[in-house]
Amino acid sequence: MNASGSAASFTDVRQVDAGVLNVGYVDAGPPDGPVVLLLHGWPYDIHSFAEVVPRLVAAGHRVLVPHLRGYGTTRFRSDDTMRNGQPAALALDTVAFLDALGVPKATLAGFDWGARTADIIAALWPERCQGLVSVSGYLIASQESGRTPLPPPAELSWWYQFYFATDRGRDGYAKNLDAFAKLIWRTASPKWAFDDETFNRSVASLHNPDHVDVVIHNYRWRLGLAPGEPQYDEVEQKLAANPSIAVPTITLEGDANGAPHLDPSVYAGRFSGRYEHRTVSGGVGHNLPQEAPEAFADAVLQVAT
Questions:
Q1: CB of 299 within 8 A of CB of 249?
Q2: What percent of the chain lies above the pLDDT cut of 90?
Q3: Where in this chain does the record put each AB hydrolase-1 domain (predicted)?
Q4: How far, in whole angstroms, is CA 30 from its chain's centroid?
């Protein structure tokens, strides 16, 4: 990666039916290698891992990088399926994706929405998780916890969540999608000098017909302002108990993360197995795998063994 943050694009994006989705994904490396699954966040896409994938492939891993629901070439298989963004839905999407590819177990790694999804699978389906790398740590929460007021400075950092709770916010996000994403990139990673090529490559993935609906539902659900779907109730009940994570885990945090995040001391106790936290220095922000691919890949290789 050069100083401006450019990297090569993924040129081979495949499609597979998995659960309620037809998932767009990258599949790199030896087909019989130990599997690593990389999960992106909002408002980013699979290219957050463009410089991570070659490092993992060089170490002999098969690397899978799916577009989440509402991103890139991933589509809902039915017009009748709710464009649901609740965490349980994204987690079960990921389990269905692994099932569709015949992958019984993988090392999971991600950031933002992707880290939350990886955390959930590691907690509830540890038999599917070889190891875990989670940027910003333990991100499992519930609607009940989302209703709890935070101190004013913390609430301020979640300004977009409250904006999305309004019809004006939904319309504003849909109308100004690119500008909104660029603002989040800049505030979440204030020291990352990404260039237009890098941004434009990823923001194209947000121009998905379901993206706005999924994102708005995700943030409204968190505040208890939008219902989920009954088929996810059992999973959400388990997550509300803040289950511990016993698989080998490394949590990461950039030293210049401008997005809302907790101090590692707050969540360290949630990890009951082999555990390590690493702070990545050098002005690294929220999109850690793209800003510090070597550090991210190194953590993945550590938990994958």
A1: no
A2: 93
A3: 34-166
A4: 24
- CA dist 287 → 56, 184, 264, 293 (Å): 18, 11, 17, 10
Rounded Cα distance, 212 and 116, in Å: 19
Query: Would you say residue 5 lies in a domain?
Result: no
pLDDT number for residue 5: 43
- Whether 22 is covered by a domain: the verdict is yes
Look up residue 234 and give its two tokens. 């059992």
pLDDT at 8: 61
* CA dist., res. 117 & res. 225, Å (int): 21
| Strands 249-254 vs 275-280: parallel, antiparallel or unpaired | parallel
**Where do runs of H (alpha helix) occur along the chain?**
53-58, 87-100, 113-124, 143-146, 152-157, 159-164, 167-175, 177-188, 196-203, 211-222, 233-240, 264-267, 288-291, 293-303
For residue 2, pLDDT over 60 is answered with no
Output the domain CATH number for residue 245: 3.40.50.1820
Are 97 and 25 in contact, with CB atoms under 8 Å apart? yes
Three-state DSSP state, 221: helix
- Residue 194 located in a structural domain: yes
Per-residue pLDDT reduced to its tens digit, 218-266: 999 999 999 999 999 999 999 999 999 999 999 999 999 999 999 999 9
Domain that holds residue 172: 14-303
Cβ atoms 66, 162 nearer than 8 A: no
Number of domains in the chain: 1
Tokens describing residue 164: 């999305």
Query: pLDDT tens digits, residue range 80-121?
Result: 999 999 999 999 999 999 999 999 999 999 999 999 999 999
Does residue 219 lie within any of the structural domains? yes
How far, in Å, are 3, 9, 88, 152 from residue 225 at the CA level?
A: 42, 37, 17, 20
Tokens of 6: 């450019």
Sequence-separated (6 or more) residues with CB below 8 Å from residue 186: none
User: What's the DSSP call for residue 59?
Assistant: T
